[in-house]
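Design request, tokens follow.
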């Protein structure tokens, strides 16, 4: 079984243009992601897929594998599909290029259920929400799971809504270490981590599906999978990762790396 990791990297980010090349403690962000991802145990190969010559040249300069793809793609998933469509590969891991703190263990954990059960066509990651600010942040997708840890729904809003809680159902939600499993009225909230793993066959089929109504409403493409009747396996991880969406996120990441961040 061949398993490839692909890091989609475009230059023209709407909220933070050129963020893949943003300097983080002497290295561009894409290099941090690439080097951390290379430490995985399950990937047979890894490369960056980009539409920008600037990113292509930077990845080449630090010795990374990189391929050029079309500028017309609307999502990283579409870019990855182009990059792997003619490759001999069974499973493809979509590793976000804006996660400079990603741990290799997270990637392996997302891949594992796909190896154990070939009926699973797609998997992703989640961990416990620890801060009220995370729960209320629309840039952080939240997940509701079924009893077998398949996704029921993803949303930018806190889900589920606790109808029988006090007027402010989140007032009890304060920071706590993961080991304490702090909850609101006995319910644990989960946030999505944007690592996706697909069988190649499903990846190519997924990118040919029309955008779904929920996907358009929430701006979360994984909802297209659920609306078309497919399941997404969700693996819980203790590791955390901070996606760089805005400049403030970059400064936070820098502080954590300087402090020796280990997930």
């Amino acid at each position: 079984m061949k398993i490839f990791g692909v890091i989609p990297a475009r230059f023209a980010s709407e909220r933070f243009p050129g963020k893949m090349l943003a300097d983080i403690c002497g290295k561009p962000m894409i290099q941090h992601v690439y080097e951390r991802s290379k430490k995985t145990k399950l990937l047979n190969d890894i490369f960056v897929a980009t539409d920008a010559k600037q990113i292509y040249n930077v990845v080449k300069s630090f010795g990374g594998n990189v391929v050029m793809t079309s500028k017309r793609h609307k999502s990283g998933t579409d870019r990855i599909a182009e990059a792997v469509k003619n490759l001999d590969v069974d499973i493809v891991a979509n590793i976000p290029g804006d996660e400079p703190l990603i741990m290799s263990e997270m990637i392996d954990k997302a891949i594992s259920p796909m190896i154990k059960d070939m009926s699973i066509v797609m998997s992703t990651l989640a961990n416990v929400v620890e801060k009220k600010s995370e729960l209320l942040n629309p840039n952080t997708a939240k997940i509701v799971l079924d009893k077998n840890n398949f996704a029921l729904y993803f949303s930018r809003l806190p889900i589920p809504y606790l109808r029988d809680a006090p007027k402010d159902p989140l007032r009890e939600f304060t920071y706590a270490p993961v080991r304490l499993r702090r909850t609101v009225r006995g319910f644990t909230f989960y946030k999505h981590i944007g690592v996706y793993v697909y069988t190649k066959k499903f990846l190519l089929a997924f990118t040919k599906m029309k955008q779904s109504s929920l996907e358009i409403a929430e701006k979360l493409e994984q909802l297209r999978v659920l609306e078309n009747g497919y399941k997404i396996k969700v693996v819980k991880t203790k590791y955390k990762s901070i996606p760089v969406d805005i400049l403030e996120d970059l400064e936070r990441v820098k502080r954590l790396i300087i402090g020796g961040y280990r997930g």
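Comment from the thread starter after seeing the answer: thanks! The chain has a mean pLDDT of 89.
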